[in-house]
Write a structure and sequence with these properties.
21 helices; Rossmann fold; five-stranded parallel sheet; elongated; 498 residues; 14 strands; alpha/beta; Helicase, Ruva Protein, domain 3; 45% helix
Length: 498
């Protein structure tokens, strides 16, 4: 993390001396100037460390320190005193200063004391930031795979992990882009530095710039004090920019400057701050299409994508489903407190048949839900959501059931609001219906659309929404579709782009 140090003193020579002793690329130094109200200005600036002459701290000292101690930065305050009296130093420590430095200390001793102050603040910052990190740090061993597609993907990842260049991770929602970025950071040379994730799509445009680059006091309405941004926090480590395709164009320009010049500028700031950060960006959008449409800068796309990785979706690596499932069972068993030891073959078969539009994240959520609902020692097909269990769990939706006042709706659906219940039922039924039709037609789009009574393009849109791919249904043809295929039937929907 880039440490921010404020020097508050009316002694010009002392100010100059401290500047020389603290010259370091990992430290941002700022001296508060002027003859009056130095302490108040230092408090408003906000910093990791304040080095203040005793003469600028107004009485009562305890109240003055309270201005700083209540700030979010947990600022360390060291007072520089002209007195050598140990009793006076004890009074200053008792008033609340973190350290007392004698102004007449020789350079070697003063440097050692300043290093102790900075080390104390750095340790506190690391401890505070560590509390926000996941309990289990992802490692490459988490991505061991039986799938040829994933094995080839990880071979590429291993080749670039020690590089310090920017990285672009692409892939559908839920494939584990952030988890992969964390693993790359943990296995790379920056593992001792911070990993700072930022979701560019979750913040309003007006907040994102300040979140990334920080702001100076008075830079906009409500900016009553300085604030550091995520690039400063990530100094010496990695910043992960998720959903980079959502970033506004004017911020794309500022990001490009960071990548080219390794320098940021706070909102309202006049000078740049040098930062040492590896940038890993991610998107579930097709950024090439975004560039062509003018929504994403071409120069930034090429600068970010020096190395691009596209994480394979789960439907392209079904070989990994058993290992992932059992891994999640082990993970959630102790946390939920249900002694679930495995999964029944019919439930695992349903996992293999499902298209997993939500990818690995959806699989994790389904396993967690199943463990919560399971009454036995193994997950059964009855513990799975309707869309995954398929026809075995849709019997209550038969035509006659709607005329039955005692209709046996599953309890987990009764717990949902009507709007959510209706949306989930429609989605589950559509997925089951389209899956059955695609299986019947061997994935032939034109024939499936004809049977469904919709346009081929509408069918494509629904398939994209639910993560259904025609290729996944090839080779599962019925006798009817086989007969048609032998006569060379052409699928009129094949010309429509997916």
């Amino acid at each position: 993390m880039l440490l921010r140090v404020i020097i508050a003193t009316d002694d010009v020579n002392l100010r100059k001396r401290l500047r020389e002793l603290l010259a370091n690329p990992d430290i941002v130094l700022e001296a508060v100037r002027g003859k009056h109200l130095l302490w108040e200005r230092a408090a408003r600036k906000g910093a990791d460390v304040i080095l203040a002459s005793e003469s600028v701290v107004p009485d009562p000292v305890a109240s003055s320190l309270e201005l700083v101690k209540n700030l979010p930065e947990s600022t360390v305050v060291a007072v520089i005193s002209d007195s050598e009296d140990p009793l006076h130093h004890a009074r200053l420590l008792g008033a609340g200063f973190d350290m007392v430095l004698h102004a007449g200390l020789p350079e070697k001793e003063l440097v050692a004391a300043l290093e102790a102050v900075l080390s104390k603040r750095q340790d506190a910052a690391i401890e505070s930031f560590s509390d926000q990190q996941p309990l289990a740090q992802p490692q490459f061993s988490d991505f061991v795979s039986e799938s040829p597609a994933m094995q080839e993907f990880m071979r590429v990842v291993h080749r670039i992990v020690n590089s310090d260049t920017s990285l672009l991770i692409l892939g559908e929602t839920g494939v584990g882009k952030e988890r992969l970025a964390r693993a790359i950071h943990a296995e790379g040379p920056r593992s001792d530095g911070p990993f700072v994730p930022v979701n560019c799509g979750a913040l309003a445009e007006s907040l994102l710039e300040s979140e990334l680059f920080g702001h100076e006091e008075g830079s906009f309405t409500g900016a009553t004090r300085c604030r550091r941004g995520c690039f400063e926090i990530a100094h010496g480590g990695t910043i992960f920019l998720d959903e980079i395709g959502e970033m506004p164009t004017h911020l794309q320009v500022k990001l490009l400057r960071v990548l080219q010049d390794h320098e940021i500028q706070r909102v309202g700031g006049e000078k740049g701050l040098a930062v040492d950060v590896r940038v890993i960006a991610a998107s579930n959008r097709n950024l090439h299409d975004e560039v062509e449409s003018g929504r994403f800068r071409r120069d930034l796309y090429y600068r970010l994508g020096v190395v691009s990785l596209e994480v394979p979706p789960l439907r392209q690596r079904y070989q990994d489903i058993p290992a992932l499932t059992h891994g999640y069972i082990d993970y959630f068993r102790s946390r939920i407190g249900h002694d679930i030891r495995g999964i029944e073959p019919d439930a695992m078969a349903a996992f293999h048949e499902y298209a997993w539009p939500g990818n690995v994240r959806e699989l994790m959520n389904v396993v967690e839900r199943a463990i919560l609902l399971c009454d036995g020692k193994s997950i059964t097909i009855n513990d799975l959501p309707l869309g995954i269990a398929g026809g075995t769990d849709l019997g209550w939706l038969s035509a006659g059931a709607f005329h039955d006042r005692e209709m046996a709706i599953p309890q987990e659906l009764l717990a949902k609001p009507l709007k959510q219940f209706r949306g989930e039922i429609i989605q589950n039924v559509e997925v089951a219906y389209l899956t059955a039709l695609l299986r019947k037609t061997n994935g032939r789009i034109g024939k499936t659309a004809e049977l469904a009574g919709i346009e081929s393009r509408s069918l494509y849109e629904k398939m994209k929404k639910y993560g259904l791919r025609k290729e996944d249904f090839r080779g599962k043809r019925t006798s009817e579709s086989t007969s048609e295929g032998m006569h060379g039937t052409v699928d009129p929907g094949e010309t429509i782009p997916e």
